[in-house]
TrEMBL record, chain A:
GO MF entries: ATP binding; ATP hydrolysis activity
Originating species: Marinobacter nitratireducens
Pfam families the record matches: ABC_tran
Keywords: ATP-binding, Nucleotide-binding, Translocase, Transport
UniProt name for this protein: ABC transporter protein
Function: Part of the ABC transporter complex HmuTUV involved in hemin import. Responsible for energy coupling to the transport system.
Keyword Glycoprotein listed: no
The organism's taxonomic lineage, starting at the top: Bacteria, Pseudomonadati, Pseudomonadota, Gammaproteobacteria, Pseudomonadales
Family matches, as InterPro entries: AAA+_ATPase (IPR003593), ABC_transporter-like_ATP-bd (IPR003439), ABC_transporter-like_CS (IPR017871), P-loop_NTPase (IPR027417)
UniProtKB/TrEMBL annotation, chain B:
Stored Pfam families: FecCD
Membrane-spanning parts: 61-81, 88-107, 113-132, 144-167, 187-205, 243-265, 272-295, 301-320
Localization (cell): Cell membrane
A GO BP annotation: cobalamin transport
SUPFAM superfamilies: ABC transporter involved in vitamin B12 uptake, BtuC (SSF81345)
Protein name per the record: Iron(III) dicitrate transport system permease protein FecD
Gene3D superfamilies: ABC transporter involved in vitamin B12 uptake, BtuC (1.10.3470.10)
Membrane topology qualifier: Multi-pass membrane protein
Lineage: Bacteria, Pseudomonadati, Pseudomonadota, Gammaproteobacteria, Pseudomonadales
Species the sequence originates in: Marinobacter nitratireducens
GO-annotated cellular components: plasma membrane
Family: Belongs to the binding-protein-dependent transport system permease family. FecCD subfamily.
UniProt keywords, alphabetically: Cell membrane, Membrane, Transmembrane, Transmembrane helix, Transport
């Protein structure tokens, strides 16, 4: 796979001057988590990495080529993005929604084939929403919609996944199921890069972490070097208690 | 997107042909269907030949082309604005065309110049709306829609002003144009050709439009070159609208109601919806025009009145149901 690489990247967060340049590579088999308080620029970073937003300086490269020099279609065959916000002003069924994930792989004159349909159905099944195939997306619950959005990127089958708060709206079981799915994708030679609100999900499932501070400062590296209680306390401006459970550190906010 | 494409379109095409046959045979002199077929095949009486080839068929085809153009333009604008309530009339394109046409009429210019002026007015209106809505940032659908609605209100005021100062002998022609009327339309072919070309041209873009309907960011993430596609839709929709208003004056609600109805029945795959809009929009206007000719025969109503009378309650019903 072509690794995604941030090169001297400064993201353009409105109302913030400066900001630290970031240099990292999301390599094969890695699961990255981005942690930071509200407004630190997690979504902006994700959109910049996907080429949907201009960087203030530096560039994003995919397999060594600057993203801005690549055709969108070529980018979308390698890079998938699960958005935090979704638009469904027009009625669409769950199956139709998963099928748009096949768009990057079809030429303008091609109709979706039986194979595309099978891929979309398989993706829905893996996210446990196959039984909702014919329902309109607008009638689903928040968690079901989230799983349909993840299934759409699964149908897209990119080498690198970018996800904006994939655990949003999900119940505990489906949070774990989605994390397992992403871990399995990484295990199959893909790469995962996701923003997370839940520090403990990140501590448990990510092998690399990027901490994004509200002032634009950032640090990144292997998870065990980043999970330093004092750094995390400074990140969230919140006192934490650390305990160990089920083989992973668990961070609990201190009351008051 | 998985719905079968051909059957619904074939059915619509059949209905279109039936509506056109009805429209050609009904009127002051009723042409029975057997005579209609033999006349179309080259035989029949001279009366029927003149009646059909010189009077009714051009009018019916012009009505079909106008309806189809407006419906496809409406469907495209709805995708562009991601708002099911957008259409050329609501966005002020028809208003701009009307101002252009009325100016030419006020100056006492001939029919060809009135058409040209209407065309220029529609394009100017589009540029104005999209230019202003673009502003310093990017197009947001709500800003575009708001700009369109406000600009449309402005055109309305200009139209009223021109009617107020127009000399009495020019008023009837101006009013008739405003109400939308196909009775003087004698050149259906440019509109029909444009409709056909656009439907063929849009087919390969259909899936990209489906993705664009989910928002520009999602579309870009799935490999769509969003900005060029948005410009293309906007130009095509303007061209379609300008051609339609040039053919038949200002006819409202076809562009709004037809795509909305079809989406309720057929879903929102543009590869089906766009050709279906061409067929259903054409059929609707052919039927409305037939009605306009026979309701108070021998007098004729402008077809715009019929579409507005049907369109207003439909629009309100859809609005009431959609809870936007």
């Amino acid at each position: 796979m072509n690794p995604l690489n941030a090169h001297n990247l400064v993201i353009d967060v409105p109302g913030r001057t400066g900001g630290q340049a970031m240099d990292f590579t999301v390599g094969e088999g890695q699961v990255w988590g981005v942690l930071g308080p509200n407004g630190a620029g997690k979504t902006t970073l994700l959109h910049t990495l996907a080429g949907l937003r201009q960087a203030r300086s530096g560039e994003v490269r995919l397999g060594g080529t600057a993203l801005s020099d690549m055709k969108r279609r070529l980018v979308s065959q390698q890079l998938g993005l699960v958005f935090q916000e979704r638009h469904d002003e027009f009625p669409a069924t769950v199956l139709e929604t998963a099928l748009i994930g096949r768009h990057p792989w079809l030429s303008p004159w091609q109709m979706e084939s039986g194979e595309d349909l099978a891929i979309a159905e398989q993706a829905l099944k893996q996210l446990d929403v196959a039984h909702l195939s014919d329902r309109l997306v607008s009638t689903l619950s928040g968690g079901e919609r989230q799983r349909v959005a993840i299934a759409t990127v699964l149908a897209q089958n990119p080498a690198t996944w970018l996800l904006d708060e994939p655990s949003n709206h999900l119940d505990l079981h489906h949070q774990v199921a989605v994390m397992e799915l992403l871990k399995a994708q990484a295990g199959a030679g893909r790469a995962i890069f996701m923003c997370l609100h839940d520090l403990n999900l990140a501590a448990r499932w990510c092998d690399h972490l990027l901490l994004l501070f509200p002032n634009g400062e950032a640090c990144w590296g292997p998870a065990e070097t980043m999970l330093v209680p004092s750094a995390l306390e400074r990140l969230y401006n919140q006192k934490l208690v650390t305990v160990e459970a089920d083989g992973a550190p668990v961070f609990v906010p201190v009351k008051g | 997107m998985s719905r079968p494409l051909a059957p619904s379109l074939l059915l619509l095409a059949g209905i279109s042909l039936l509506a056109m046959a009805l429209s050609v045979s009904v009127g002051s002199v009723t042409v029975p269907i057997s005579d209609l077929l033999s006349t179309l095949a080259g035989g029949g009486s001279t009366l029927h030949q003149t009646l059909i080839f010189e009077l009714r068929l051009p009018r019916t085809l012009a009505a079909f082309a106008t309806g189809g153009l407006l419906a496809v333009a409406g469907a495209l604008m709805q995708v562009l604005l991601r708002n099911p309530l957008a259409d050329p009339y609501v966005l002020g394109l028809s208003g701009g065309a009307a101002v252009g046409a009325l100016l030419a009429m006020l100056a006492g210019l001939g029919a060809a110049l009135v058409s040209g002026s209407a065309f220029a007015g529609a394009l100017l209106a589009t540029l104005l709306v999209f230019g202003l809505a673009h502003g310093t940032g990017s197009w947001t659908p709500s800003r575009l829609l708001l700009t369109g609605v406000v600009v449309a209100a402005g055109w309305g005021a200009v139209i009223t002003l021109m009617l107020a100062i127009a000399p009495a002998q020019r008023l009837p022609g101006m009013l008739y144009w405003l109400m939308g009327d196909v009775s003087y339309a004698r050149a259906p072919w440019p509109g029909l050709m444009l409709l056909l070309i656009v439907c063929l041209m849009l087919f390969p873009l259909g899936r990209s439009l489906n993705v664009l309907a989910r928002g520009p960011l999602q579309a870009a993430a799935l490999g769509v070159a969003v900005r060029p596609l948005e410009w293309l839709i906007y130009l095509v929709a303007s061209l379609l609208t300008a051609t339609a208003v040039t053919t038949a004056g200002s006819i409202g609600f076809v562009g709004l109601v037809v795509p909305h109805m079809l989406r309720l029945v057929l879903g929102n795959d543009q590869r089906i919806i766009l050709p279906a809009c061409a067929l259903a929009g054409g059929t609707l206007l052919v039927l409305a025009d037939t009605l306009a000719r026979v309701v108070i025969a021998p007098e004729q109503l402008p077809v715009g009145v019929i579409t507005a009378l049907l369109g207003v309650p439909t629009f309100l019903y859809l609005l009431y149901r959609s809870r936007v």
